Automatic annotation (TrEMBL):
The lineage of its organism: Bacteria, Bacillati, Bacillota, Bacilli, Bacillales. Keywords: Cell membrane, Coiled coil, Membrane, Transmembrane, Transmembrane helix. The chain crosses the membrane at residues 41-65. InterPro entries: LapA_dom. This is DUF1049 domain-containing protein. GO terms for cellular component: plasma membrane. Residues 24-84 form the Lipopolysaccharide assembly protein A domain. Residues 64-98 form a coiled coil. Pfam families: LapA_dom (PF06305).
Amino acid sequence: MKGQTRLIFALLFALLIAVFAVLNVNPVQVHYGFGVSEWPLVLVILTSVLMGGIVVAFVGGFRIFNLQREVKRLRKENSQLTETKKKLDNETEEFEIKRMDPDETVTEIEENKKETEENHS
């Protein structure tokens, strides 16, 4: 819905600019800094709008590129942290097993492990 609203507003804005440009067809002087020429005002308006759109697209594309790079970096960091957590969980589990009473049998250790997993679920 948000995208459709933006599209409708963009089309209305483009229509408004086109009507404004067509109503202004008189020739005007354009100063380039190194020369002067006469152009129809409609071309000056449409060229200005087009150049503005290109600048906005370039800036938006640059922002999207930076955001995609950041997402990639954060995913990599998340993956590394997940691996570190798994390693620490395994080390903690091994430590808990070593800390248990030496008289416990292996089956009791496994039962305790299953109970702990069920309690966390």
